[in-house]
Specification:
Number of helices: 14
Oligomer: single chain
Order of helices and strands: HHHHHHHHHHHHHH
Number of domains: 1
Strand content: under 5%
Shape: globular
Radius of gyration: 19 Å
Length: about 300
């Protein structure tokens, strides 16, 4: 009965916290993006040198996109002449860094963990964007053309602040409905782990003393197609049972960044060698980040 009570309490509290955070942060981000035109974003990302990679990673971090939105934007950037490295930094950062993920990390793991996660992943997206561009990755882009033309900036955009705020909340609510099932599944599994999974078992299999846990955790996330909104509550529950924080971070990065559906969609615009290189970049970010987390925290 104690386990059941703690499980239900954990589920209700975490779900309520994440719902409020998701809607609040998503509304703010949507409101900010209403004041930034797509043309400005493309111009910033077209900057020479590593600056374009920083902007690409930042735009990817700012926008809570799923693969269905990331791929059309990637095509748009390529067609607009944005530098290849900046586009790659955007592609890698988009599923791994967004305000929702960072806010969830703050709520469930604390500010320090969220800041370290951001620095590691953001740095990885910039570095691998530069490397893949220098290695001639632009030659591995398929000749894809966008159909239907580009969307006009600020099309039917309201001018009044209250109208923009209302529209931002409506968009946030739509995004929330889209990820709600993933969030509930993650919190549900996490609640069961929190209430019933023996701590000794987790320590033995995935504790901080097992050096192979981190790369295995990164690989496990690939076939599971774990969204970060699902992986973070599960990872926090496992961490409370003794799983190393490095393995949890590797699971989050691996699951969210190397999801099979997204990689399949990328294969439509990138050749196999480039898709494999992106997967390797994310895997290395997950593993290196996991070990850094274990050393620092």
């Amino acid at each position: 009965m104690n386990s059941l009570t703690s499980t239900i309490k954990y589920f209700i509290v975490i779900t309520a916290e994440l719902t409020v955070l998701f809607l609040g942060i998503s509304t703010i981000v949507a409101l900010i993006l209403m004041y930034i035109s797509q043309e400005k974003i493309k111009n910033w990302m077209s900057g020479k040198g590593i600056w374009g990679n920083f902007i690409g990673a930042f735009i990817g971090a700012l926008t809570p996109f799923c693969a269905c939105s990331t791929i059309p934007l990637t095509l748009g950037f390529l067609e607009a002449g944005v530098t290849f490295g900046a586009v790659i930094s955007f592609v890698i950062a988009s599923p791994l860094l967004n305000p929702i993920i960072l806010t969830m990390l703050v709520a469930l793991m604390g500010w320090k963990a969220s800041v370290i996660y951001f620095i590691i992943v953001f740095g990885g997206t910039v570095i691998f964007g530069v490397i893949l561009e220098k290695a001639g990755g632009s030659k591995l882009v398929k000749g894809v053309r966008i159909k239907g033309g580009e969307q006009k900036d600020n099309e039917e955009m309201p001018k009044a602040f209250k109208s923009k705020l209302r529209l931002s909340f409506i968009k946030a609510w739509g995004d929330f409905r889209g990820v709600l099932i993933y969030l509930l599944v993650g919190v549900g599994i996490g609640s069961i782990i929190y209430g019933y999974l023996p701590q000794d078992f987790v320590l033995k299999i995935a504790g901080p003393d097992n050096p192979f846990t981190i790369p295995i955790a990164a690989l496990i996330g690939i076939p599971l197609y774990i969204r970060a909104e699902t992986a973070i509550p599960i990872g926090v529950a496992l961490m409370q049972k003794g799983m190393s924080i490095g393995a949890v971070i590797a699971l989050i990065i691996g699951g969210a960044g190397m999801a099979i559906p997204e990689m399949s969609m990328l294969a439509g615009i990138f050749k196999k060698k480039l898709v494999a290189a992106i997967i390797m970049a994310i895997f290395l970010t997950a593993v290196i980040g996991g070990y850094i987390f274990n050393m620092i925290l």
